[in-house]
Amino acid sequence: MLRNAFCGGLLAASIIAGPVFAADAPAEIKLGTLYASAGRYASISMPVHYGLKLWIDQKNAEGGVFVKAFNKKIPLKLVAYDDQSNTATAATLYNQLITQDKVDVLIADSGSVLTSVAVPIARDHKMLLIDQTGTGANFFTPDNPYIALISDPVSSIWPKPLADFLTQDGPKLGIKRVAILYATNDFTGTQANAVRKFIKDANAGVDIVYDQGIPTETSNYTVLLNNIRASNPDAVIHLGYAPNDIAFLRNVQDSGIKFKFLFCIYPGLETELLEKNVGSKGLNYVFTYVPSSEISYEANFGMPLKDYADAWQKKYGNTQVEFGFNSVAGYTTGLVLEKALSVTESLDQLELRKAIFSLSGKLKTLDGTFELDQNGAQVGEITPLGQLIADGPNHVKFVTVWPHNVSTGKPVYPRP
Amino acid sequence: MFVYSLLAGLLFGLYFSLIGLGLNLVFGVMRIVNLAHGDFLMLGAFVAYWLFTLFSINPVPSVFISFAIFAVVGIPLYYLLVPRLLRGKDPEMLSFILFFGLSQVIEAVATISFGTSERSIPGGELGQAMASVESFFLGTAVDNGPVEIFGQTFPAAWIVSGFASGLAVLFVYLYLYRTRIGYLTRAVMVNREEALATGINVHRVSAIAFGVGLGLAALSGVFAPFMLGSITPAMGVDVTVTSFAVIVIGSLGRPLGTVLGGLIYGVSYMLMQSYYSSWANLLPYVLLVAILLVRPSGLLGRQVRRA
Amino acid sequence: MPRTVKHILCVLPVIAAFAVLPAVYENHLLLFNFMIFMMLAQGMNLIYGFTGYLPFGYVGFFGAGAYGFALTVVHLHAHPLLALLAGALAALALGVTLSPLFRLSGAYFSIANLGAALAVYQVVSNPNLESITKGPYGVSLNGVFDPTFAYTTTLAILAATFGVIVYVRNSHFGMALQAIREDSISAAMAGINVVRERIVAWLLSALIAGLAGGAFAWYVSVFYPETVFSGEFTIFAIVFSLFGGNGTVLGPILGVTVLYGIYNGVGISTPQYFQLIYGALIMLLVLFLPNGLASLLRQWGIDVP
Questions:
Q1: pTM, two decimal places
Q2: Is A262 helix (H, G, I), strand (E, B) or coil?
Q3: How much is the ipTM here?
Q4: Are residues A170 and A269 in the same domain?
Q5: Does C145 touch chain A if contact means CB atoms closer than 8 Å?
């Protein structure tokens, strides 16, 4: 009887004492996200998704992610739906993740368009939106705390290295006239606005002699190239998506026009894709962003670039999904979440936000330095300006030329 | 700038005439709206891509190979789909939807098999073909790069595709006006019921025309990596809509009309790109609606009004 | 009028369902999308089922409604209900502008309508008009974000739409339309004003799509031009109304429930075969059941409302 009383007492004590400890520790942390397996945004979505999955599988193999709020490792569960690059479907699915699957962390699909629909939904349900690569500047407003941009710099500052090079090193090389050709969509249009503003504000004697917006569906540049040539520019900047860059560079090559300085975005962000479609001769001496997949940043957390690239090859080498900038972005999302969970006081959305913001300026990953402004926009992880040099018939190497403190070589100007 | 745009427009327009040729044939003969036209073009482009990547076959022979493959595929496909369709009420409208479904199926299969990344064939390939033709005829060795016309340079691919387009129009013309089967085809184009009444095997004639139409689509697809920069499984839809604009502007059912439509589209598109570049994509649709309202039979064609 | 009453009794459960479901099923956006497609399918039913014209650019009215709503809110800071009206008017205006297209026959009408819708899309998304329409950079309507109010209003609009269809199905007007569809010349000889009846049907269906577009803009509050001018809306409207059976009240409702339900179900379970399954479904539908489920039911002797 005494033993019964003793057991009963223990039971009572543990029932009372239970809530004091991590009685609410969930069996798993549910991460909800979307990906596009088909359609226009599939090529930027799948690498990001695979990068995130690599992180998840790695963590689960170690028993899960350490969550400070419960003082233990908890395994991760991924709930992911396919939005087929369709924004209306994406909106319904984001809603599904929040209201039906009741995920703990909401992670957006890749790119500004598929992220845009999530912004008001997350806000309405008071869920923090983990924005992976949606860089649209108007997502980040002072009245919306439920968003944080993790892996790409916000569009309005992304082109700063390019503009700085043109206005500071440019005049010394003889660059005075700049032509800007951009596709009119949120991503590239905002960058065009930024470039224009940076160049004008610099007041360095660099003038914009050609400035045209074209539809994103444009696939033929022959006439445009002729018009650009007529304006006699020293530098030509083309801001478009990957298919635009491919068509542009091929048209430049096929029409035999020589430009002294050419800049495109996607030779940097999707190098393999451009190598395959344009070839190293067409990419030779083209300037572009140097992505984190080409620079071995010193990381104080997570795998450095080389190890990650090896892990990617092992896991995804036989798929058609290419390794590059976007695959790094997905993995970076995972790292930021890992670090944030390891310091967060609870799984409450605003607490998570606090935890993520606390990493700003301190977290250094293979993607660069993580830094957020007060509205949640990423102002770190800037991609330097680099030049591509042909290295065999189908391969190019990067030479970083700006900023000077990370440069690995001198730019070749004019283009031979 | 104006002269360049004009010339570029003519050359580019010829390519679109080529694209529209197959669609025109199918609509003219069967009054079927082939919304999968752009997807067959895409398949033809991928055939050329894989032949080049796997077997290093130059695009020029691929043109004939693509045509042959899809002409042959077209005939059983016709028998599978069309007779059933024609039995129902309002086949013209239903054909829209049927072929839309087909276009989705083709796009889905292509996406699953090939992935979504952009693919291309180096421009030099067509340039080489051009160079070998030039050296054969002119006896001189020329660079396999851009070609000069009236002092303006254009990519070699444009010349080759323009040339191919001309040949294709000639082929269709000969087919329709100089062969027996073409003669029967024209009869069916004018009035299907009457043709049937006179004993013509309408289904057989239509099936062959359908095959030729698909073959032409695939053939024009071989030039797509050069004219449109890169190819992906999803490219079909935009191409289909533009080619509709082209054939409607010309006139449905007459190959020369398609050529005219293509040229008009090409020239106006290039001029728009030069002077009002952000409005360039609006043009084909405005032209389409305008033509249909002012002269619905197209610039060369016959009456199509209903009460 | 027992027939009309019977028809009304058929649609009441649907309205009731949409009114009650939000309390038990939390993915309200999904329910909302169902309602939008119900409206679009009925609008398509009205124009294709009752007049035989297939507007392949039907989404043009939807987008016009959405942008009418958005611009009124952004530039005039109007109350959402007023803005909805503006959206409806925008769609009506577009319908009036496009009515000359009726001079064209079948396929030409469809292609012209498609061209017109794409033209409107290109104009709206043009960066030169950025100050008015925000061009390709998308619209963000944070000030009027109120999903509950939007949902309820949409429910009311849906009820009204059903009302219109029930009316058309049971009235002189509906019969006149069907007569025109079968044989316009005989109908004209019987004294029906062919042109006027058609235009009325056209404008009604444009109005329905416009209201749906405005409601959509209100509910989602963030959208790009390509979202509200997507050809998918037209295709779905056509397929749903076709599947259920045109010219009936219940047909489109059935079509949306079954097909859109499958769409969402498949989308969540086997996404990679998604497009393939849907395309194949459409093809089988046209080949084997071109007059829709309603025709199947009729063959079995059931009278479909």
A1: 0.83
A2: strand
A3: 0.80
A4: yes
A5: yes
